[in-house]
Amino acid sequence: MCTLEQRSNIFILTLTGNDDEHRLSPTLIAAILSALRQIKSVATSGSVLITNSQGRFFSNGLDLPWALAAGCRLKALARLTQMVESLRHVVAELVSLPIPTIAVVQGHAAAAGFVLALSHDYMLMREDRGVLYMSEIDLGGCLPDYFTVLFRAKIGSGLARRDVVLGGRKVRGREAVEMGIVDGVWGCEQSLREASMELAERLGSRKWDGKAYEKMRKGLYPKLCIVVGAVEDRILPAKL
After folding, report:
1. Domains of the chain
2. Residue 22 pLDDT grade (very low, low, confident, very high; cuts 50, 70, 90)
3. 143 within 8 A of 155, measured Cβ to Cβ
């Protein structure tokens, strides 16, 4: 479902599996959450996280087929709610990591998959295959509270948010850069992964104090921290 590799001070979390859609099932969400907590427990000054995936999807959102397999509407809704609440903890862990985080979107990132990518500090995208898509408006669904807060926190343009959330716009690489959603695009998988490693090495070389980095990130997104339950610790600067 996912693997965690450490190369020097860089952690690489990769979504894997036979189903390359990487739908966020309870099992995959739990695996991601466990990996993030493991990273947090051993991260040091200069550590960085890269999250990427195998295949043509970054993640195609929550595992709706699993929810619908419950058989009746109430049971399906309960399963969907379970996944939404579990993913809330993943977003909280990403907000609380004491290290920079990078999402590498080499394919489709839809709905909750888009949310997972956007929860990172940086997003890099493949130009020819990368697609960002919030499908809820087309499916007749509503956004969980923390989805909405995340989009308001991470996408500065109101017009861009409108097009993504209310317009169901499928945003490709160059458009995503122009809309201020991703940091850059690359033409092939190899160049994208090389760029992510270069960025990680550059960020890691700064050797920022982890608690300070975490606190400053939380200060940028206070409403998001509230809705996902990420408590802010107040600390003195490490160099005082």
Report:
1. 2-228 (3.90.226.10)
2. very high
3. no
